[in-house]
Amino acid sequence: MKDGLTNLEKSEVLVQALPYIQKYAGKIVVVKYGGNAMVSEELKQAVMSDIVLLSLVGIQVVLVHGGGPEISEMLRKIGKESRFVNGLRYTDQETAEIVQMVLCGKVNKNLTALLEQHGGKALGLCGMDGGLIRAKKLEAEEDLGFVGEITAIGSNTIRDALEKGYLPVIATVGVDDSGQIYNINADTAAAKIAASLGAENVILMTDTRGLLRDKDDEFTLIPAVNVSEVPHLVKQGIISGGMIPKIECCVEAVRRGVKKAVIIDGRIPHSILIEMLSDQGIGTMIS
Question: Active-site residue among 246, 265, 266, 283?
Fold first, then answer.
């Protein structure tokens, strides 16, 4: 909390947050971390402190992450060009190995260490640990290589970590029965993990305010969408482009028992706390 607030104002902020802390205490919340919040050092520190704070007040947070920029940077270093098909990274065998190395190694362990620095008790996991993310090749109109579709989530591994007081940090790499590695979309993984855990909430951090009625005007934010409204919004072109898979993930999570799914702007410092511990909320809620 920034200096400038009086002690009385600080205490009022905490009192106003209390009902939300009570509402979520003991509940599981899945946060998908990505976009600019992962690149900007200031935003990264804010996200880590938010997550540790939520964990310390009794909310069971599961952090799910990708790492697109880091993967692209490593591919560039070895002289390999990143190629995307309909927003998904084409993943040949060499790229799959780079994805495993960058996500499960560098990114996952850096985030785990950062949470520990902020006073959290974090445990880094990837989809290959304890059968956490089982996958098969994603069948698409155009071949995507080793991009995976999730077939099963080993939720017991995550529950075991939560029960022991850990904050699980999950890298979205999947594996099949033969040991083949698959690159998994982090939004999809977060939604599936939330559904498998019966989570209270899944939060997708993005680089946009949320779902906009006019994609070029941030003041046209749609704060809430019912699952039944989604097909009509797609038909109208309001849900389009990269927002389609994000909304589809949210819809699947809600249909499978998650209370609500929220797309929030990760460019706003402490957006997770604003969403969870205030009455104003932030972004677009699908319920």
Answer: 246
Sign of the four-CA dihedral 75, 171, 273, 218 = positive
68 is catalytic: yes
DSSP 3-27: BTB-HHHHHHHHHHHHHHHHHHTT-
Sequence-distant (≥ 6) Cβ neighbours of residue 124 within 8 angstroms: 108, 109, 111, 112, 169, 171
Neighbouring-strand partners of residue 133: 153
Q: Is residue 259 annotated as a catalytic residue, yes or no? A: no
pTM for the full predicted model: 0.92
- Has 246 been annotated as catalytic? yes
From 50, 127, 148, 187, active-site residue:
187
The predicted-structure confidence for 61-71, as pLDDT tens digits, reads as follows: 999 998 888 89
Residue 174 known to be catalytic: no
